[in-house]
Write a structure and sequence with these properties.
It is found in: Membrane. Its main location: membrane. Keywords: Membrane, Transmembrane, Transmembrane helix. InterPro entries: Band_7, Band_7/SPFH_dom_sf. The protein is an alpha+beta fold and about 290 residues long.
Length: about 290
């Protein structure tokens, strides 16, 4: 588990290092002119200067240092500033800033077996430095690989649209925020072992694969045409029924069944035709 450390300020240690360095210079110059003992003292001061200088570290905002002591995890420093730690500690830099990942467009099969192209963009950051440093090898590569696996699993779990599966409660094309929430949860479950926090995940590209895109477009157009024609026919039937009732209620004209059928046929042609009907004037009698 991650353990956050609060190391001592490094300003006092920095002053001490400067004093050691100044002492090393002073004793070295004095030793050259007077005695070899001063040279030895200068060398000791310089060695101590190098030793304590190794314990100084500067941490930038939204960065951290993971500390180890001969292979044992000591803790993580997340504060920013100048600090002094045990010079024998080894440290690993780790960024805590949010990062964008624009995944490559993947070609996979949806739930119905149709080849589709899908791509995602996600925002992530390191939440647990211990897991990111020690539970996985190169956590940035782990994020890329697991994000692709999550996208493939999402695409295979839902149909692209409801053309083939009319009873599908969620589709990739119309799922919207629901699909994005499922994607975020899938990424969170996969990347939690690396201490990664998913802040946002969205589908950035979604389309049929090129080899079936044309056929699917024709199918969508046909479906739209059928739906439009259905609405037109429903409206035309209502208008014809209204016209017959008005003619009967107002006693404008009495029509037998044969004439009613002809009138219905003519009105349906006029109302449902794609082009405007050409009127023909009848100057004779109705019969």
């Amino acid at each position: 588990m991650e353990k956050v450390l609060k190391p001592m300020s490094g300003y006092l240690a920095l002053v001490f290092c400067l004093i050691l360095f100044a002492g090393a210079v002073f004793f070295f110059i004095s030793g050259v002119e007077q005695s070899i003992t001063f040279v030895i003292i200068a060398m000791l001061c310089f060695l101590l200067f190098c030793f304590f200088l190794k314990g100084l570290m500067i941490i930038q905002p939204n960065h951290s240092r993971v500390l180890n002591f001969f292979g044992k995890y000591v803790g993580t420093v997340k504060d920013n500033g100048l600090f002094f730690i045990n010079p024998l500690y080894s440290s690993q830099k780790m960024s805590l800033r949010s990062e964008n990942l624009q995944g490559q467009t993947l070609k996979v099969n949806d739930k119905m077996g149709n080849p589709i192209e899908i791509g995602v963009v996600m925002v992530w950051k390191v939440g647990d430095t211990y897991k990111a440093a020690f539970d996985v090898e190169r956590y940035s590569d782990f994020v890329k690989m697991q994000s692709e696996a999550a996208v493939r699993h999402l695409a295979m779990s839902f149909p692209y649209d409801n053309l083939e599966d009319d009873h599908a409660p969620i589709t990739l094309r119309e799922g919207g925020d629901k699909i994005n929430s499922i994607l975020e949860q899938e990424l969170t479950d996969r990347l939690s072992k690396a201490g990664i926090i998913i802040q946002e995940a969205r589908i950035s590209h979604l389309a049929y694969a090129s080899e079936i895109a044309g056929a699917m477009l024709q199918r969508q157009q046909a479906t739209a045409i059928v739906a439009a024609r259905t609405k037109i026919v429903e409206g035309a039937v209502g208008m014809v029924d209204l016209a017959l009732k008005k003619l009967s209620e107002e006693n404008i004209v009495e029509l037998d069944d044969e004439r009613k059928a002809a009138m219905v046929s003519n009105l349906m042609v006029v109302l449902c035709g794609e082009k405007a009907a050409q009127p023909i004037l009848n100057t004779g009698t109705l019969y």
